[in-house]
Every structure is written in structure tokens, then in C-alpha cells.
Specification:
The chain has 82 residues and is mainly α. It has helices spanning 5-19, 21-30, 41-81.
Length: 82
Amino acid sequence: MAVTETQRHELYESIKVHLGESEAHTFIQLMPPDWTQLATKADLDVLEARLESRLLRAFGTWLFTSQAVVIAAVGLIVGLFG
């Protein structure tokens, strides 16, 4: 449901009464013109799953790379002193 300009103005007036004109202005400036653009819990759940997947992939890459460096360093040490 899209919020009309009338509803937006009524919200501004209500906030202005309770918090003051400056705060009401700041609040309205921070809110998107279309309130349906706000994130829902479902949106956050999807984002969490995507981030978890990326973190696991990054950790796997880091783990593989660090082990390869350790093996290369051991091989170099054995080659120099072995």
C-alpha cells in the first residue's frame, strides 16, 4: 500500500506536535517516499543467507590459501636445509 502525500503530511504534523519541527523534518527526510521500500524480516532473512554463504566461501578460500603457503614454506625450508 503506497502512502499518499496527505498521509505523509499528517504524519509530519503528528511528529511535529510530539517531537518538534526540526525532528519531524529530519524524520520525514529520512523516510523513503514509498514506505513499501522498507526492508521486511523476510528481506533480512534472505540477506543473512546470502552473507553467510559469502562468508563461508571466503573462509574456505582463506583456509586453502593459508595451508598452501604453509606447505610451500615447509617445502622451501626442507629444500634449503634438507
